[in-house]
Amino acid sequence: MKRLLFLLLLFFFVYLTIFTWNLKTGLIDKIVGYTGLEVVGWILYPGDWVYSKTKKIWEDYIYLVNLKKENNLLKEQIKRLKLEVIKLKKEEKEAQRLRKLLRFSPPKGWTVQGARIISQSIGPNGVLKTLIIDKGSKDKIKVNTPVITQDGVVGRVVKVGYHFSVVLLLNDLNSRIPVISFHTRTKGIIKGTGNTFLKVLYIDQSAPLSQKEIFVTSGLANIFPKGLPVAKIVKIETHKGSLFKDVTALPLVNFKKLEEVLLLIPKR
User: Fold this and answer.
1) What pLDDT was estimated at residue 123?
2) 12/19 Cα distance (integer angstroms)
3) Gyration radius from the chain CA atoms
């Protein structure tokens, strides 16, 4: 008990001494203020560091998200612009083709009408070499209406609907067109083979034909007007015992690249 009382008196004495000394010098207040500031600072600093880093990461994330959205919008815009350029180029080419077609002057006694091709059955799976066009009986189209381009004969209409028609191509096996050579005036009949090339039938062995000569329509059979270019000779062969030459020709029209054609309609 005495020991405890002694320690309390000692503690009280030391406290009063230090308190009195501090009143005179203020040193303890300064130390406590400084050390307290340090303690507070080291407590707050990690939190502030974490906050600032988290804020920066969040701002970077938001920036990247916005940047990604902006990039996606730019990509979509570029894609739309590319499609627009393709569309404009396609329209330009179409306009060029149409202007070229419109420069065609129909033969005397005929009028011309343009048509778009909406389907083709060209190739190994096609039973007939045909086209479907967007003109029919409402446009005064009839069976055997000649179909051409500015380059030459395409074929003739073989089936007519009210809005659409079927065109039998020049190279179909069922196609026959009376022709005459442009320079030597040799008559024959061009027959389709179902392939790229054509055969010219009934050319006499003595006919003075030469390669690259052009055959044009002769006007016989009353289907095609006279003088339309049809095909170019690519090979001439003669065979003993045969009355006729074996003549191979190439159409002047590339059927696979056709998109528009002209229809010839006789004037009434």
Assistant:
1) 47
2) 10
3) 48
